[in-house]
């Protein structure tokens, strides 16, 4: 994480008028990062963060508290088993979240508070999946046809359509 400090120097804070020059996308994919870089929490103008394909096991609480502009977050292909509660601080901004190919055993509750989320990837985790209802924004869809199945792997839901599924 200390190697990240020079990269972030000079971009630790910004006003709305200076955000155009600050770090907005930060791509740290495929770097074998083990410890989540805490310096990221000071990048208040950050809109896109990609930390996929690393070895991150834990994201400490407080990291997302000041990232209210974050729209795109890729954490896939790490070793995560939980998300910090303060991810909910991005509830009005986060539109894309990819946490696939991690070690989640239960669905991360902070994701349920992300009101603007449009695309969510959760496949290839360790969920003991029992799908009864899928809630997408203001709509929910109950799937009684899955009621007798104890496990559904994988369930892919992506819809470029605005019409109901059934």
UniProtKB/TrEMBL annotation:
The keyword Repeat applies. It comes from the Eukaryota. It comes from Otus sunia. SMART domains: LRR_TYP. The keyword Hydrolase does not apply. Pfam families: LRR_8 (PF13855). One of its GO terms (cellular component) is cytoplasm. Gene3D superfamilies: Ribonuclease Inhibitor. PANTHER family: MALIGNANT FIBROUS HISTIOCYTOMA-AMPLIFIED SEQUENCE 1 HOMOLOG, PTHR48051. This is Uncharacterized protein. Keywords: Leucine-rich repeat, Repeat.
